[in-house]
Structure formats: structure tokens, C-alpha cells
């Protein structure tokens, strides 16, 4: 059992090192040696736990997706008022600034999804999980009589995510502030739900 704990600990350490190396160099320029240096081990030691750099990167992407989506789902869970849920949903999906690590990790992978089916499937899962949160909020708001939706809830849910994605890149590039983006997404919310968030 101690060996299993050691291996899990080492994999976690390598995952953290992979994230740091990815944020420093970007995915396209990343080498196995970069991850090894961040972890303070040899490239051979990394390959003891992972078949290759791609395997480690896919796992890193999956873990980032899980952390991002789980945090967002937990943020709205247990909130009864649909308008408050929508406000929280918007707030929890927007980067805090250019140095917000988790959204930056997710965006480092996006270009790969254009030509890599495995990365595309992971990116699609990320989008679907986020849209599902919005969908649930919109359905609840409709049922509570708080929202009068201009379009089907599924369409609006994916539109919220698409809008966030576009603006998120603006924040990460330092061209827009978090406050500006939240205001823009809330304005869209008011237009499509008939309810202005406070």
C-alpha cells in the first residue's frame, strides 16, 4: 500500500510540474525535458509513470476540466433562487485576470482540439458540462417564473458558454477586465431571460 501512495504522490507531483511547464512554455513548445526539470527529475523518471508527453498532457487537461467544472457545479449547487444561481454561474466561469491558472491551462489545449480527435473530445466534454449547468439554471428560472426565455434553453445555454469563451480570451490576453466581461455576460442574460441580475 505504501508503494501505491508513493506512486500516486509522484504522479501528482508530475502533474503539477506539467502544469507549471505548460503555463511557462505553452503546449506547442513543450518538451518532456521541461516537465522533468520542473519536477526535479530526469525525463526517464517521467516516462516511468507516463508512456509519453502526450499521455501526461491529456491527463493534465482532464484534471483541469474536472477541477473547473466541479468548482462551477458546486458553486450553484444548493442555491434555490434561479436568478442567484445564474449570477453565480456567470461569476464562477469568468477568469479573475491574465494570471488565472486554471482557465489558462484550458486555453493552452484548445488549438490542439482543431486537429486531434482526443483533445477535441475532451474540449467537447468541457463545453457540455458547462452548458449543462446553464441549462439547469435556465430551466429552473423558467419553472420559478423568474425567466422568460427568448429561445430554447439548450440554445441559450450553449450561447452563454460561447460568449464566455470568447471573452475569456480577452481577459487572459489582458485586453478586458473581469468586471467588463461579467457586465457584458449579465447584459446578455438580461436580454435573453427578461430578468436583470443585480
Structural features, described:
There is one protein chain. The chain contains nine helices and no strands. 74% of the residues lie in helices and 0% in strands. Helix 4 packs parallel to helix 7. It is mostly helical and 198 residues long. The protein folds into two domains: 1-50, Orthogonal Bundle (Arc Repressor Mutant, subunit A); 65-193, Tetracycline Repressor, domain 2. The longest helix has 27 residues, at 117-143. The chain starts with a helix and ends in a 5-residue tail after the last helix. The model has no long low-confidence stretch (mean pLDDT 93).
Short account of what is shown:
The protein is an all-alpha fold.
Query: What is the strand tally?
Result: 0
Structural class: mainly alpha
Strand content: under 5%
The CATH topology assignment of the largest domain is: Tetracycline Repressor, domain 2
Bin the helical content: over 70%
Sequence of secondary-structure elements: HHHHHHHHH
Amino acid at each position: 500500500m505504501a508503494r501505491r501512495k508513493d506512486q500516486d504522490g509522484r504522479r501528482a507531483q508530475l502533474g503539477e510540474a506539467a502544469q507549471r511547464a505548460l503555463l511557462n512554455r505553452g503546449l506547442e513548445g513543450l518538451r518532456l525535458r521541461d516537465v522533468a526539470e520542473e519536477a526535479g527529475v530526469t525525463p526517464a523518471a517521467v516516462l516511468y509513470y507516463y508512456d509519453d508527453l502526450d499521455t501526461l498532457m491529456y491527463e493534465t487537461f482532464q484534471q483541469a476540466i474536472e477541477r473547473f467544472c466541479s468548482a462551477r457545479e458546486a458553486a450553484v449547487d444548493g442555491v434555490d433562487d434561479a436568478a442567484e444561481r445564474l449570477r453565480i454561474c456567470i461569476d464562477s466561469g469568468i477568469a479573475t485576470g491574465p494570471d488565472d491558472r486554471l482557465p489558462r491551462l484550458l486555453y493552452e489545449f484548445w488549438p490542439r482540439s482543431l486537429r486531434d480527435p482526443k483533445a477535441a473530445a475532451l474540449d467537447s466534454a468541457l463545453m457540455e458540462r458547462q452548458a449543462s449547468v446553464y441549462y439547469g439554471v435556465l430551466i429552473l428560472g423558467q419553472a420559478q417564473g423568474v425567466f422568460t426565455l427568448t429561445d430554447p434553453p439548450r440554445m441559450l445555454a450553449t450561447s452563454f458558454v460561447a460568449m464566455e469563451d470568447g471573452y475569456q480570451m480577452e481577459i487572459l490576453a489582458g485586453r478586458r477586465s473581469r468586471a467588463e466581461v461579467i457586465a457584458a455576460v449579465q447584459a446578455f442574460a438580461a436580454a435573453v431571460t427578461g430578468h436583470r441580475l443585480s
